[in-house]
Amino acid sequence: MKPERVQPVHLKPDHSAGWRRFAVVMLLALAAGGAGFWWYVLPTPVAYHEVRLRMMSLEINGPGLLDAINRVVVTSRIQGFLKAIEADRNDSVKRGQVLARLESVDLQNQLAAAQAEASAAGRMVTEAQADRARAQAVLDKTKIEYERRVTLVRLNAASQAELTTTEAAFKQAEADMARSEAGIERARAQVLSQEANVKVLEARLGEATISAPLDGVVISRERNPGDLLLPGANLMQVVELSSIIISARFDESARATIKAGQPARVTFAADPGRVWNGRVLRLSRQVDQETREFTADITLDSLPDSWAMGQRANVAVEAQSPEQVIGIPESLVMRRDGRAGVWLAQRGRASWTPVTLGYISGSNVVVTRGLKEGDVVLAPAGRYAFQPVSLGTRLP
């Protein structure tokens, strides 16, 4: 039996698969072209900000401490043991109010003795005046007798010896009168001396009572009854509430920018979530040679309930730039590799440009280098190099 002959089968080429591949390639090419057209040809409306020179408000920050202009250290001018203390920490006091008393028995006794001596000196003046009156009477009598003897000698009714005796008595009376006058002056000087001594002791006795030098609040007390208080030793400190300030420190570069009367905001480390309003009162005329900082006194519209001397605070002074500057919204700044920059609209396309930033003013930031007036800064979200853009919403 002969085997069957197998006839070869001839397959026709399938051109449909090639067309499908071609169609896919064309679609991809069209998609790529469309994407390229959309990305690099079709402009995208973008929000923008037009750069211009302007005066900007500055927020200059610096650390500060709670202090007071009228802050008095109460001391004693005399030495003595503390008998009583009439005021304690946190007490409100009025000017002239008694704060403390010193033991003063010795001073009282000295004053009584001085007053007695002054009284005795006054009586000595009276005695000296009586002595002068007696001397005056003797002088008047001897003068008359002397003048009579002179006349008698001229008439040869009296001898020269009698005249000499009368003249000597008259001169003695004159000397007694001069001594009486000197005694009165000496007694009066003694009175003045004793009266001055009385006043000194009265003043010292008054200093044994220590009074408040001003209206304020006692912020510290360093001594207790029974302690020996030496002249100049710290007894307590009193602060006038109306003179409480924040002593803030700023870099010397801000010296020409910060001025008296500018508003300021203060936050305390003890309550950082609350802001206290105030104003710049005055600036110091001295810059620290090491830190290159100067101080400014800031007054507060009101004080925190928990205020304390030396309390830390942060001060932000709202000032004006000394000249026109370029400032843009801080939200328009983006960073590449740690460097700040902005997207600019240049010839209808987005171009990233590095910039140098200065201080922050609210929601704006000063640009010191990289921009000029008239530049158009684009919103940075979604931007890429050479993106075709059109100007959309204008940002303030």
Automatic annotation (TrEMBL):
Gene3D superfamilies named among the record's database cross-references: 2.40.30.170, 2.40.420.20, 2.40.50.100, Helix hairpin bin (1.10.287.470)
Coiled-coil segments on the chain, per record: 170-204
Transmembrane portions of the chain: 21-41
Domain CusB-like beta-barrel: 247-305
Classification via InterPro entries: Beta-barrel_RND_2 (IPR058792), MdtA-like_HH (IPR058624), RND_pump_MFP (IPR006143)
Keywords, comma-separated and alphabetical: Coiled coil, Membrane, Transmembrane, Transmembrane helix
GO cellular component terms listed in the entry, alphabetical order: efflux pump complex
Transmembrane listed as a keyword: yes
Domain Multidrug resistance protein MdtA-like alpha-helical hairpin: start-end pairs: 126-190
Domain of life: Bacteria
Pfam families hit by this protein: Beta-barrel_RND_2, HH_MFP_RND
GO molecular function, one term: efflux transmembrane transporter activity
Family: Belongs to the membrane fusion protein (MFP) (TC 8.A.1) family.
NCBIfam families associated with the record: RND_mfp
Name the UniProt record assigns to this protein: HlyD family secretion protein
Organism, as annotated: Xanthobacter flavus
